[in-house]
Amino acid sequence: MADGFGVVVGAGTLRSESGDSIRFPHRWTPEGVSVEADFTGAHLLHLAAAGCVLNDLYREAEGMGIGLDGVRVSATGGFDTGSWASTGISYAVTLDSAAPRADLDRLIEHVDAVAEIPKAIRAGARVTRSADR
How far is 130 from 58, CA to CA, in rounded Å? Predict the structure, then answer.
């Protein structure tokens, strides 16, 4: 990912086998998810969006009766390095499924509308620091 802030999450047949990926347990897949990301604030923001989309794809597919063998979501974006304001996040979805393409397209569109983290980022959020402890 050319801008330096790219992340990739994968599960099922699309989980990364790279030795550089990190594995986490996952509610919908017995093998867990793989995460390829550097540990910076920029990467973590993009990881939150990609991870949410991956989770919601599994959750919503189950409700729609769509079987998913694998999911990969990559997310990337830039930042104005003067202010560190995000210049936006884009994500791409790859699915491994025997379901008809029209059903998968409908699933992706639905998840784009309901995924909580992308919705929160799109809406904007105030971040405040509470008292130090």
Answer: 35
**In Å, how far from its chain's centre is CA 74?**
6
Q: Could you say which DSSP state residue 54 is in? A: H
Q: How many CB atoms lie within 10 A of CB 14?
A: 20
Rounded CA gap, 6 and 48, in Å? 12
Domain boundaries, the chain: 7-123
**The pair of three-digit structure tokens given for residue 51, joined into one six-digit string:** 């991870």
> Nearest CA to 75 among 16, 15, 118?
118
Q: Which CATH architecture has domain 7-123?
A: 2-Layer Sandwich (3.30)
Q: What span, in angstroms and rounded, lies between the C-alpha atoms of 33 and 22?
A: 8
pLDDT band at 120 (very low <50, low <70, confident <90, very high): very high
List C-alpha distances in Å: 53 to 8, 15, 50, 87: 11, 15, 5, 20
Helix ranges, the chain (H) = 41-64, 101-114, 116-123
Give per-residue pLDDT as tens, 33-76. Answer: 999 999 999 999 999 999 999 999 999 999 999 999 999 999 99
CB of 89 closer than 8 Å to CB of 46: yes
